[in-house]
Amino acid sequence: MTRTSDAPEGARNADEPPGRTQDKGEDSPAAKPKFILYLDGPEYQQELYQLVQWTHHVLLPVYGREVTSTAPWCSRWWEHPGVVAQLHGLWLAWSQLTGPDADLAGPASWHRDFLGPVMGVLRDPAGPFAGCKPGYHRPKEVPPVDQLAPPQPHAA
User: Fold this and answer.
1) 70-95 pLDDT tens trace
2) Is residue 116 domain-resident?
3) Could you report the per-residue pLDDT of 96-118, keeping only the tens digit for each?
4) In angstroms, rounded to a whole number, what is the distance separating the alpha carbons of residues 23 and 6?
5) In the chain, N or C terminus with fewer CB closer than 10 Å?
6) Around Cβ 100, how many Cβ atoms within 10 Å?
7) Where is the region Disordered (predicted)?
């Protein structure tokens, strides 16, 4: 896909690899994308926006299946940090394995090595969407951790 003229300057299409910009005759390659959990502030929000675009316009229309009790999905998936991390990793792999520089076996590798395992985890009845139903998001509680920290390592 190419960026349309009404898109904001610097905007990236949902299927354009993260960290790359449209070729404007620049000789230097764009910086490698960062994993979304390493981002914060506006950089995180922009990456999340792009992830939402890819998820809603590429992933779900092609690979989304009916939501059932045995294959849940949350309509507010972006409020599940672990899901954001999983989908971002899936998107990064998509970008690398299906982009213009990918070899011909890239898409098959992406389906086998990334799509199936990630969607299997996300859609598992005991997975991150357990308790979520169409139209209802159930926030997850962070597992409790004892207040005592493990001992500090001794300096050598």
Assistant:
1) 999 999 999 999 999 999 999 999 99
2) yes
3) 999 999 999 999 999 999 999 99
4) 17
5) C
6) 6
7) 1-29, 133-156
